[in-house]
Amino acid sequence: MPDLIHDSDSAAAVSSLRSAVMLLGRRLKHQRVDESLSPTEMSVLGTLARCGSATPGELARKEHVQPPSMTRIVALLEAKGLVRLEPHPDDRRQKMVSQTEQAEAMLAESRQKRNAWLTTLAEGLDEDEWETLRNAAPVLEKLAHL
């Protein structure tokens, strides 16, 4: 592994990657199905879809927000019919948050819309660029989960 801090080519590549990922992420956030949901609310629903039911405290940790903020977010999502609160199986003082079928359908539609948008963008790449992007996808996935 090269010394990324002292290698100017690597430092430039890291800076370019950061900039591109941030811009692409912002543009993807605008490809939403339900404009009434904030990006944070969508993120919470995505976390529930990936990780399953969780307590509000667990969601707060995963989403890097304070527990009182998560309590408000969960209440908003519950009022919109996108999550339900159920008793915790081991601790009667806590609740478990899980997504509803309505949330599952909305997330599936959102993924489909974002995938279609990215597909349209990818059509502007030449064959070599598309091959590079296909090869980079697993590496980007790994980076996202480190």
What does this 3D model show about the protein?
- With 146 residues, this protein is mainly alpha-helical.
- 66% of the residues lie in helices and 7% in strands.
- It has six helices and two strands; from the N terminus they run ααααββαα.
- The chain has helices spanning 8-29, 39-51, 56-63, 67-79, 101-122, 127-145, and strands at 83-87, 95-99.
- Strands 1-2 form a two-stranded antiparallel ribbon.
- The longest helix has 22 residues, at 8-29.
- The mean pLDDT is 90.
What are the key terms here?
146 residues, mainly alpha, two-stranded antiparallel sheet, 6 helices, globular
Q: Distance between the terminal alpha carbons, to the nearest Å?
A: 16 Å
- Mean pLDDT over the residues: 90
Strand order of the largest sheet: 1-2
The beta-strand count equals: 2
Gross morphology: globular
Concise structural overview:
The chain has 146 residues and is mainly alpha-helical.
Topology:
Elements: H1 8-29, H2 39-51, H3 56-63, H4 67-79, E1 83-87, E2 95-99, H5 101-122, H6 127-145
Helix pairs in contact: 3-4
